[in-house]
Amino acid sequence: GKKTDSTMESLEMIQRNGNNLMRLVNEMLDLAKMESGNMDLLLIQADIVSFVKYLCESFQSIAKESQIEFTIYSEIDDLYMDFDASKLTTVISNLLSNAIKFSLPGGKIVVHINKVHDKKREFLFIRVKDEGLGISAEALPQIFNRFYQADASTSRKGEGTGIGLALTKEFIDLMGGTINVKSKEGQGSEFNLHIPITNNAPRTSDFIFPVSPELYNNSEWRKTPEDFLVGDNQLPLLLIIEDNVDVAHYLKKCLKEKYDILYAPDGIIGTKLAFDKIPDIIISDVMMPGKDGYEICSTLKSDERTDHIPIVLLTAKVTQQDRIIGLSHGADAYLAKPFNKAELFTRLDQLILLRKKMKQKIEMDGFGSFLKGRAASPESKFLKKTIKLIREEMTNHSFGSRQLADKLALSESQLYRKLKSITGKSTAIFIRSVRLQKAKELIQTTNNNISEVAYDTGFNDPSWFSRVFKEEFGFPPSELLK
Q: What is the pTM for the complete model shown?
């Protein structure tokens, strides 16, 4: 095992350094673009307060891991203004990752948001204050210079600040704003940003930000799970398990056109909801009190009611190691926070597409392949078992959804959701399909007439049998006799 461990570590180191290098290259390209005057602001107009809070949230779990207390404090509830989302993300991320990197366990970081004005104009004010290692008096004037790096011994883990701060400064300049820093060595640093407020860009709904937690009290979120649709509606059912209401809201806004949504504020409620409602897909945060994302994965993937449901884990940390842990608990996909909408859509679409392919396979070759092949996936194991139970009751025409659910130790609605999700068919139609498949086999392999085959497969009325047979296979049973 030694060799593979060290190989693994080397690979991770290469990947980590590769990622760092990639980030530096991108930052340098951005700086080069800035210097040649080719960098434009791509402005949208939206609520900047909830956006900044949303960005901060993804650093909260990283701070927590480093035992650093992280507080976001806004004196204003919202502020609609023009901003460039990706450049602002770079600015805030650089300031926060530096604050965390230079803080010691037990330290504090505070992000303060407000609206201020001088004689002529109004500004958004953001302060990022830490109690970390601080910056020496001689280093202070240099920190926004591109390749200046404070003495490596003071920067934790020997990582310099890179050119993040140079880029941060350039971006703030581009926004017409100012950034200044106060710091005392050994006592922490404080970065103050002022960005002038304008309202010229189109208001956007495409990049929808989370709404403030006050909204948590409104009727939309207060719905009990029972108020949500579960049944034969057209949209797939998505369960969001996320303790941060801002992030949950953002997800809900992004996805409400394409999914019916269930929401759970923690892992314990989330697991219960997953068992009760059998959603089509689950998005869960990794770091949550009570029951974290990994535990949710393990619980749901080892239970027959829910083992077929794809689970996407959201995490602020996406090292190779985290991915491996997540995947070993049975996660189907991993998304880093803050994620972007397009990436989220792509991942979910991929998972839903896998489902669709499976349904098409069932459409194409009936259930034969599940009975013959080795059942590898939880889905095929479940179908194999279910088909076997229906076949055992083949001649019993009163064997229906309730009896099948009892035999599988599921409620009728759990069975309905699970079958619908895997096969696209309701329980009644699924049972009927299994009966018809068997009937087709019997007509081809025995000399029984059509009425006999109908009775043998649980149909009491031969003419009804012929009608549904044609519906299922596209030709009447009499064709097979020829």
A: 0.50
